[in-house]
Amino acid sequence: MAKLLAEGLIRDVADFPKPGIVFKDITPVLHSPAAVIEVCELLAADAKARDADAIVAIESRGFLFGMPIALQLGLPFTPARKLDKLPFHRISEEYALEYGTNTVEMHTDAISPGQRAYIVDDLLATGGTAAACARLVERLGGKVCGFGFLVELTFLNGRANLLQSPVRALIEY
Ligand code: AMP
Fold this sequence. Notes:
The chain has helices at residues 27-30, 33-49, 61-73, 128-139; strands at residues 11-14, 22-25, 54-58, 77-82, 90-97, 100-107, 116-124, 143-152, 167-172. The protein is of the alpha/beta class. Helix 2 (33-49) packs across helix 3. It starts with 10 loop residues before the first strand and ends with a strand. Bound molecules: adenosine monophosphate.
């Protein structure tokens, strides 16, 4: 397959947010409408192939791709947010990041029982964030039909934490 436009745009930032972390900065991708459209079309096609009927995206960079994917497919969008950001009744799951620990939350009415949720984020590292988000979907009675990422850091083997559903990552490092 031809190289994605986004691949030439993602920038490595050394020692961010902590020494030893190489941060994959996707903001240059956002400067290119063509690159964003390409990413969203590929992930939307994957979500469609998985029979998704809702798109769940993870704060905050997941929102940048999740919302356009939901619009393209005509599906409901729901945000999974960090601790204490959502205003309504919510449930929480803790997770481990490549750099620290955190909590992800969803509104209790975000997913209906039986709904097939496709989970979107910009990057798969250890898989802790996406796995916690999947637990939220399942606690609400939904099913995770797939995960879609722009980038996967394969050396962290995050897929091992996401064995319950197919994982699509567009660019691997
Ligand atoms: P993980 O839970 O380890 O899979 O981490 C994934 C989340 O952390 C995603 O929301 C990413 O945006 C962010 N993240 C983790 N590591 C990096 C990295 N090296 N570069 C950019 N974002 C990262």
